[in-house]
Amino acid sequence: MNLFLDMKTIILLLCIGYLFTLILISAYGHNHSKGLAIRTFFLAKCSQTIAWFCMVFRGEIPDFLSISFANSILFIGTSLEIIAFLYLQNNFRLKTKMVMIYLVLTLLSIIGFQLIVLFYNKENVRISYYSFVIAVILIPVYRMVLGKASTFLMRIIGSLYLLVIAAFLVRGVTALLSSTDSISLYTPGAYQLISLLSIYLVTNLGNLGFVLLMKEKADHELIRLASYDDLTGTLNRRTFTEKAKKYLTDYSKKGQPLSYLLFDIDNFKTINDTYGHHVGDQVLQDLTTRIKQHLDKEDLFVRYGGDEFGILIPGKDETDSNEIAEQIIQTLDGAISRSLPVTYTISLGVLTVIPDQHMQLETLYTTCDKALYNAKNNGRNGVFRGQIDVHNAVS
C-alpha cells in the first residue's frame, strides 16, 4: 500500500484546519475579548496559518516568502502558542520579563535562520536548525508537568508536548547527519510521512489542548464563584455547611476535637453609617486578610452574611483554639491600615467539642452565637467560650 502523500495537498488541508480554528477562536473570543491567553493564542494561529499558506505555494512564489518568511513567522507563531499556554496556566507571574525573554529568543531564532539562508542555504541545515529552535521554544511546557498547581489535564498535555520536543530533536539530528534530499518535506518517502504525522500531532495537540484547558479553567472559575464569597474570598454558607458536616462526621469517627469560632465586627453599622459602605467593604476585606494569616489550609473560614463570620478548626482543643482566638483579637485590636480611615475590633465566641455521630452543625452555631453575645455584653473586643448542653445536643 502506497502511503506517500502529496505535500501541497496535505499542507493545504492543514491550512484549512487552521482557518477553521481561527473562526472558532474568533467566535469564542467575541465574548471573551479581555482574555490575554485567548488573544495570544489567536495571534499564534494567525501566524501559523499565514506560514503554511506560504509553504503551499513553494516553487510558485519567491523562496523569500515560502522559506525565509514562512519559517520566521512559524517561529513567532510557536512562541506565541507557548506563551498562551503559560498565561492559561498562570505561570507568568513576572509577565513582562517572561514575554521579553520570548521576544528576544524569537528574534535571535529568526536572525539565525536568515543567516543560514544567506550563507549556507542547505535544506538539511535549515531543517535541523528549525527543529532545534522549535524544541527550545517548547521547553517551558515542562512547567505544565512539574508545576505544583498543575492539574491532571495540564500534566497530560505537557507530557505530550515533551514527546513533541523529543521528536523535533530526533528530526534535527537526522537532518543534520543527512546530506540528501530524502529529508525534505516535499520529497515522498518515509521521512515525509513521519514529519507530516508529527505536524498533525502538534497541530491537534495545540488546538485541542488549548480548548480543553480553557474549558477546565472556566469550570474552575464557576466552582470558585459558586463556593466563595466575592468580596472577602471566604467560603459561602452553602459550601461551608457541606465541608463542615463532613468534618463532623470524620472527627466523630476519629474521636478528635473540633473548635468553632463565630464573630462579628463591633459597631459595624456605625462604621457604615459614618464612613459609607465602601469603607465598610474595605474593613471586611482587611479583616479576612489579617485573619487568614492565622489559619491553616484545613481550616474552614465562612462569611455568613454582613459582618458575621465563622471558622471551623479541625483537630484543635481548647488550649489551641484559645490561643488562635486571642491571636486574632490582638491582630485586629487597634490595627491601623493605610487604606482605612478607621480602626475596628471584633467580639468572638469560641467552642470546642469532640463530636459524636449525633452532633449537628446547627448546635455548634447556636451555642457559639450565645457565646458571641456574651462577649459583646462583657464590653466587646474580647473572647467568650461557650459550652454545649449535652442534653440539647442530641437530636
Briefly characterize the structure.
Helix content is 65%, strand content 8%.
Question: What kind of assembly state do the chains in view correspond to?
Answer: single chain
The number of domains:
2
The outline comes out as elongated
CATH topology of the largest domain: Rhopdopsin 7-helix transmembrane proteins
- On the 0 to 100 scale, the average pLDDT is 82
Percent helix, as a range, is 55-70%
CATH architecture of the largest domain: Up-down Bundle
Q: Helix/strand-derived class? A: alpha+beta
Give a written overview of the molecule:
- This protein has 395 residues and is of the alpha+beta class.
- It has helices at residues 7-29, 36-56, 63-88, 95-119, 123-138, 142-146, 152-177, 190-227, 237-254, 268-275, 277-292, 318-332, 361-377, 390-393; strands spanning 258-265, 300-305, 308-314, 346-353, 383-385.
- It starts with 6 loop residues before the first helix and ends with a helix.
- The chain folds into two domains: 7-227, Rhopdopsin 7-helix transmembrane proteins; 237-393, Reverse transcriptase/Diguanylate cyclase domain (Alpha-Beta Plaits).
Strand-helix topology:
Layout lengths: L6 H23 L6 H21 L6 H26 L6 H25 L3 H16 L3 H5 L5 H26 L12 H38 L9 H18 L3 E8 L2 H8 L1 H16 L7 E6 L2 E7 L3 H15 L13 E8 L7 H17 L5 E3 L4 H4 L2
Parallel strand pairs: 4-5
Antiparallel strand pairs: 1-3, 1-4, 2-3
Helix pairs in contact: 1-2, 1-8, 2-3, 3-4, 3-5, 3-8, 4-5, 5-7, 7-8, 10-11
GO molecular function, one term: diguanylate cyclase activity
Pfam families: GGDEF (PF00990)
Protein name: GGDEF domain-containing protein
